[in-house]
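## Example pair
The file below holds two records. Each record gives the amino-acid sequence first, followed by its structure token line.
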Amino acid sequence: MIVIVDERKLVTDGYNSLFDREGVASAGFASGEFDEWVESAADEDVKSVRAFLIGDCGEDAVSPRKIRGRTGAPVIALSEHHSLENTLRLFESGVDDVIRKPVHIREILARISAISRRAQEETSFTEIGAMRIFLDGRDPEIEGQPLPLPRRERRILEYLASNRGRRVTKTQVFNAIYGIFDEEVEENVVESHISKLRKKLREKLGFDPIDSKRFLGYRLVG
């Protein structure tokens, strides 16, 4: 999920619509609401955020370092002021990147992926047994052969791979794939997506690589 922070509801609504067209969950906040949410939200909610986009919030209204205290997700400033002084000020505040507006939504997603790759020591994929799972939107490979997956199933597999070695709950998977504030989709839809994903992986691998335990969640195994 992508979080956008901007005082103008028209702006956050616009970004929500653009991300939705790309199949990416997002949520918009005004700076006061966001500050309260960052301090009070559960760890599993904060850690389901893929990146934070900080727009027009007034100087020092949002602290990138406070965000960094809760999660390692990229913090990117969206700047309408194309001056060197403003760009340097934003970097000094602790953001990972500064993007000058106007900008295409796909460029924002590409920059988020690039920052995340660097944070993962330039590794753009995870290998688990015969599976190579990419973290940049490409379909996974099994024994070198692509396995085409619907977007939701692919993103669930990516999320499980990025949490390799840890068990994640159904709520965490839902938040990462649909967003924390999506009230139009039932959380149980995760079970349906995972059931379909397991069937496809089992057919290719000969075993079920998704270990699940009731009330504890899911874990990807090799």
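Second record, same layout:
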Amino acid sequence: MIRQHYQALDHISAAATDTITVSDPSRPLKLTPDSPAFDAMTDLRRVHPVSISSSETLDQARTTMIVCGVKLLFVRNSQGNLQGLLTANDLAGERAIKEASSSNRNVPELTVNDVMVKLPDLEFLEFGAVSRAEVGHIIATLRAHNRQHALVVDNRTGNLRVVGLFSSTQIARQMGIPVMDPVKASTFAEIEAAVASA
């Protein structure tokens, strides 16, 4: 049933100040380890993840990452369901080199399906736990699992749905740490140094 009567909201006057800033998504919030975890999460309910088909080549995947400025691709089927993830590190990592060697192909000729992390091997953070967490918890989690990224799923409706993404590179940027190359060791070392000095 649709409610027939709605009350008007109160207004706030700008008369008491001469400076009002405007939110700018290109300049994300400055983070500290005590910031709410959601401040560091890419909300996939509002931002569309960059996706790719499992049949595309690694060369095509690399081009997609470069053009879209991302280091992680969601691999989805024709119904839009998640099949796996492909990161920039996967493009020339150990799995790609082994697969190319065993199949007598060059690495760029491999398909996304050959090297992606498939759905059964993915691990997720639960939305409720993230809602109670701080950025320091997310850093500790990424570090403990030696990961650059973490996906957040919401299962409150009974069906798992990916709703968020954490990236160690993005966290480092938001903490004001310059990240030259998102290599696990240096990124986490820099983040941990920033946390320690905070």
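Notes on the second record: The chain has seven helices and eight strands. The first helix runs from residue 58 to 68.
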